[in-house]
Write a structure and sequence with these properties.
Flag_bb_rod_N; 17% strand; four-stranded antiparallel beta sheet; alpha+beta; bacterial flagellum
């Protein structure tokens, strides 16, 4: 082995040490750079050389500069990030609904319900007091407005979640395009060899994009031998080498509610997701906000229809001289329970009471049973046949107007009419002598027949029969005042109060569970991130130790070069 060979070994060692110092310096410089992955130099002994009977080493060589990555751990961390991101969105949706309900305050819906039914107690105590009736109507308007406002805000929450879906899809396409471009640059930079040095900066940038993509959708990654990273979602590839697929949205709007579906743009196939923000947004929109809106609609529908069933059997201070149903049908000849009414009536009957005032101030009452035949056999009741049955009663006239509404009027000024004993729900379904209007939380209101100070006397506090007694004056108000806690067949024996409590409990319980699940995912993700940082993160103390070791190695090799140089000088001077 010549001195020149030894000098070459020392020179190679100096170069290797310089590269090592460069990598250490790069690590230290990026210690606080988000997404940076620590790099290290892979050293290996150079090939040996036979020198007589001796085998001599030829120093050191650098195999590659690679990133310190546990790919299995990185995949697990991305999966945890997807779960956490999806859970956070759902937890936030529950928190938004809780703030809308605003329970335990003076502005919550339960306060409005209590105020409304308490005001009916005032009418029951003083049925002759018109101001008490006017208070009930005012409280009813306030309650209806509170329900509408709550429903509108819940719809806003749902639509906001849906809008964020579109924003998320746009970001997904931007990220996948970024990964596609970086795949090409990395493959070109690394030369397509798995054993070559890695393009650390490009890989860190790609890793940052992939991590963000994992928060949006639950992805699976697979690195190829050429350095490209393939990404799939639900078994469908999203990025493949230098190719990618666009994600598109399809939005439909029904009753003010937007529903966006996320699909692959090329084949229209819906993404199969189980985690990530997109999954969380969809679940929050449909299962959280959507379920709450439906539950609120069910509660409001029960309040409207069941309250009206009781209310419609009473009457105000006087009977009606004329009355038109609030609700109409598209086809007056259609069977009543198939005519498109928001609430379908059942088979049964109601009493039509016709009052006739005599010249001496006396009053006679004629009671006629109006049958509602809905047994599915020929002759079922339609709006036209119902009008005909009422029209056959002496003293009143009934007809169906051009809007498909039933109109009833007295034949003379001495005649008025009222209703009683309706077990079919036809009066409530048609909107004859009802308090509430609408069909759900967004349409609930108070019958315009009752609005205005002069109409307050129409509030149906009384129950009318052929034998008038003083007790009849507040009989209906007494029934209505306990309605909130009354067991309802429509709710399987539960009360409206039970239904309301269940609605609130579902939100509160869901919020608590969602918050706990989110916290669990956060802790799990933080644990994985800690393990990943222990491998891939830059530790200044470790880098300082490596720097000192390389410095000492460099100094030793420099001293070796100096010694060989001195020996060569001696050899030349011989």
């Amino acid at each position: 082995m010549s001195l020149f060979g030894s000098l070459q070994i020392a020179s190679n060692a100096l170069q290797a040490t310089q590269i090592g110092l460069h990598v250490v310096g790069n690590n230290i410089a990026n210690a606080n750079t988000p997404g940076y992955i620590r790099e290290e130099v892979l050293y290996s002994p150079a090939p040996v050389q036979e020198y007589g009977r001796l085998t001599l080493g030829l120093g050191v060589e650098i195999d590659a500069i690679v990133q310190k990555v546990d790919r299995f751990l990185a995949e697990r961390t991305r999966g945890a990030a997807s779960d956490r991101a999806g859970a956070e969105v759902q937890s936030k949706a529950y928190a938004d609904l809780e703030s809308l309900l605003n329970e335990l305050t003076d502005t919550d819906l339960s306060t409005g319900l209590t105020g409304f039914f308490n005001s009916i107690d005032g009418v029951a105590d003083a049925p002759a007091d018109i101001s008490a009736r006017n208070l009930v109507i005012g409280k009813g308007q306030t309650l209806a407005a509170d329900i509408r406002r709550l429903a509108t805000r819940a719809v806003d929450v749902s639509n906001e979640l849906d809008t964020r879906l579109g924003d998320a899809v746009e970001e997904i396409n931007q990220l996948t395009e970024r990964v596609r471009v970086l795949n090409l640059r990395i493959a070109t930079s690394e030369g397509g060899s798995a054993s070559a040095s890695e393009a650390g900066g490009l890989r860190s940038e790609r890793n940052k994009a992939v991590n963000r993509l994992a928060e949006l959708v639950d992805i699976t990654t697979n690195e190829q031998p050429n350095g490209a990273l393939n990404i799939s979602v639900g078994g469908e590839f999203l990025v493949f080498d230098g190719l990618r697929r666009d994600i598109a949205t399809e939005t439909q709007t029904t009753d003010g509610l937007s529903t966006t579906t996320v699909r692959f743009a090329d084949n229209g196939k819906e993404l199969n997701l189980s985690g990530g923000e997109v999954f969380g947004l969809t679940a929050a929109r449909d299962d959280i906000a959507g379920t709450f809106i439906q539950t609120l609609d069910d509660f409001s529908g029960t309040l409207i229809n069941e309250f009206n069933k009781v209310y419609s059997q009473g009457q105000g201070a006087t009977g009606f001289s004329s009355l038109t149903s609030v609700n109409g049908v598209a086809d007056p000849d259609a069977v009543l329970d198939e005519a498109g009414l928001d609430f379908a009536p059942d088979k049964g009957a109601f009493e039509l009471l016709v009052f006739t005032e005599g010249p001496d101030g006396s009053r006679s009452t004629d009671v006629t049973d109006i049958n509602i035949d809905l047994n599915g056999i020929d002759g079922d009741t339609t709006l036209n046949t119902l009008a005909a049955a009422i029209n056959a009663v002496s003293g009143v006239t009934a007809s169906v107007d051009t809007l498909g509404r039933l109109s009833i009027s007295a034949d003379s000024k001495d005649v008025t009419f009222a209703f009683n004993g309706d077990d079919s729900g036809a009066l409530a379904a048609l909107g004859l002598n009802t308090f509430f209007t609408g069909a759900d939380a967004r349409t609930i209101g108070v019958n315009s027949e009752l609005l205005g100070v002069s109409n307050a006397a129409k509030f149906a506090a009384a129950r009318t029969s052929q034998t008038e007694t003083e007790a009849n004056a507040n009989a209906n108000a007494l029934e209505l005042s306990v309605f909130f806690d009354r067991k309802l067949e429509a709710l399987g024996g539960a009360s409206l109060a039970d239904q309301y409590d269940q609605m609130i409990n579902e939100v509160v319980t869901g919020a608590t569970i969602a918050s706990s699940v989110t916290e669990g995912f956060k802790i799990f993700e933080a644990t994985l991130q800690g393990e990943e940082q222990a491998i891939s993160g830059v530790n200044i103390d470790e880098e300082a130790i490596n720097m000192i070791q390389l410095q000492r190695t460099y100094q030793a090799n420099a001293r070796l070069v100096q010694a060989i140089s001195e020996m060569l000088d001696i050899l030349v001077n011989l």
